[in-house]
Amino acid sequence: MKEKISQLFKDKVFLVLLVLGLLTIVAAAGVITVQRGNGGGESPYLKVPDQSNMIVEESVPQDTQVAVAGDSNATKNAEEEMKAVDSAKATAEKETQAAKAAADKNAAKSLVLNFNDSTRMTWPVRGNVILDYSMDKTIYFPTLDQYKCNPGVVIQGDVSTPVVAPANAKVQEIGSNEEIGNYVVLSMGNKYTAVCGQLKELKVKANEYVKEGQVLGYIAEPTKYYSVEGANLFFELTHEDKAIDPLDHMQ
Fold first, then answer.
1. pLDDT at 22
2. The M23ase beta-sheet core domain covers which part of the protein (predicted)?
3. C-alpha angle with apex 52: 50 to 58, nearest 5 degrees?
4. Cβ of 9: how many Cβ atoms within 10 Å?
5. Which of the residues in the chain have pLDDT under 70?
6. In the chain, where does DSSP find H-type helix?
7. CA 6 – CA 209 distance, rounded (Å)
8. Which residues lie across from 141 on neighbouring strands?
């Protein structure tokens, strides 16, 4: 009986010591953990820097900047090349036109102005003759409401109709008056001259040579002397400063 009691007492003491030992180990482990966590006085959590006062700056990578600069330079170079090409084309066109004009003038200068009594002219404009040539008697002019002589013919035409040179000639004079408006005097050789009046937008200059069929200008609005007759071309032919009937020399 005593032995059982003694054994029970020993078992209790052992259990108590075991529990005390476990408690001692747990306490020691806690101390170590706390010391490690507080080592150096720093928090065990990761600190994030305060970004409230920081300015975020976006930067383009250097390679990207180089690429953009390269593209910009390439675009500028392409534009400059296009401008150079356009300029070269414009210059070439001007030179071509100048060469053509010079060739036409040289060709015209080589023309023989040999108009004579048997020469037949091109009609300067196609249309009805509304007032005939008449120097031996008077004819009625509707706008003026009177009879008078007519040194030329009045050919009906629409405004802006082209008027051409009736024969190879040299532009002797360009002028304007209130009766026939803008006019061109053509010297055709052998003292034959032709006058084309009621013109606008003249395409020739004084002392210029023109070929038969070349545009001299265009029919203008009629002057006040021909308002009733309407738009027309006044055409006069002279020989040795004397008016003659142009229809006698028309084709």
1. 74
2. 150-246
3. 105
4. 10
5. 1-6, 8-9, 13, 26-72, 96, 98-110
6. 2-37, 62-109
7. 156
8. 146
